[in-house]
Write a structure and sequence with these properties.
Two copies of one chain form a homodimer. By secondary structure, chain A is of the alpha+beta class. The first copy, chain A, has helices spanning 11-24, 36-43, 93-107, 123-131; strands at residues 2-5, 50-56, 59-68, 77-84, 112-119, 135-146, 150-160.
Amino acid sequence: MEIREFTDADWAQVWPIVRDVIRARDTYTYDPDMTSEQARQIWVEPPPGRTVVAVADGALLGTAKMGPNRPGPGSHVSTASFMVGQQARGKGVGTALCQYALDWARSNGYAGMQFNAVAETNRSAVEIYERLGFTIVGTVPGAFEHPDLGRVGVHIMYREF
Amino acid sequence: MEIREFTDADWAQVWPIVRDVIRARDTYTYDPDMTSEQARQIWVEPPPGRTVVAVADGALLGTAKMGPNRPGPGSHVSTASFMVGQQARGKGVGTALCQYALDWARSNGYAGMQFNAVAETNRSAVEIYERLGFTIVGTVPGAFEHPDLGRVGVHIMYREF
């Protein structure tokens, strides 16, 4: 598996991954009805951020975006988001993308990485983040409307470098 | 003091308040170099959000914006932001604006209100929010670069309705 920078030609393979994740409504606080063009605006980060893809044998397995978490006085903290295609889950793609984002942020001088809204029911993501050194800073009760489980908590997670 | 909906004609008085707040770099994680037009894009909320102003004797004392905190599965939680002009501080304008936003969010069916990034050194804001029923969900260490105090923590605060 290789992780490389996103190019325009990748969107045709990235969009189905993003579309399936947001339409499932069980992990991301994104508008599930976003069009391809709206999703592209959100997912493809302009500099100083970056968007990457994980590929193996010509197949696009997953994608990540990373950059400053907030502008101005918050811009020394990074954030990142990860999505893995359904076929490729449980094979370490998310972990590899998160490790890539951490390396990228550290080498670009960020002081840490913050995740602003991790649904507490997204156990596989929470486990990856904790294994990679993130801790739960706090949990906003009921802030995520899960399609099957109702309102569940949202974690804010942080890892200092 | 009256709190009413923002109209286009108000921007000439709102912008100096926003400009002074963001250039001070001590409370908001906004780009301090934003132009008037960029700030207007951020501050004037389209529906379902709302932007309001606090006025007294023809003077514009402060302003607030409010709306959903996140799209999709996060859109039942509201958020809000408040800015008070330097001349009008310490006179209850911030409290009145926050109370207005809470009433607005409750009557629009939101389940609670979340603040995503409150600099811990912004004691007057933290005190207003706590008095109005918010609690600190967690604090991201060093996530705010204060011009005098260096890196200080950022609170996530929440009030359930």
